[in-house]
Amino acid sequence: MTVENMTKLICDSISDKLGKDIAVLNIGKVSSLCDYFIIASGTSSRQVKSIADSVEDTMKKEGIEARGKEGRETQSWILLDYGDIMVHIFDEENRGFYNLEKLWKDAPYVDMEELEAIDAESLKVEM
Fold it and tell me: Are 104 and 20 in contact (CB under 8 A)?
């Protein structure tokens, strides 16, 4: 599975739990930290936890475990580290306060349609 496929799968999992304002940043263009940041919001601590659980369950079904997890105790900002992808799930207040999009403003946004095109391209079989 490519990093782009994983990114799309994670975004779909977040959407399934009604995550808000999903943003994908191509961090690999400005840092060696990882390839992508996926940033999303939930309206309550319960929803933040539910989104994180959904992402973890989806990735486990693909045989992929998070390398690290932070923030389960407070449920206001949960970080899931999948190596090439960092998933940040915030409640609305903390997303505005930490404003990762501004902090990483030099990283280009990834259009979801672009990810879908990459995903579709990887499914093609050469003849």
Answer: no
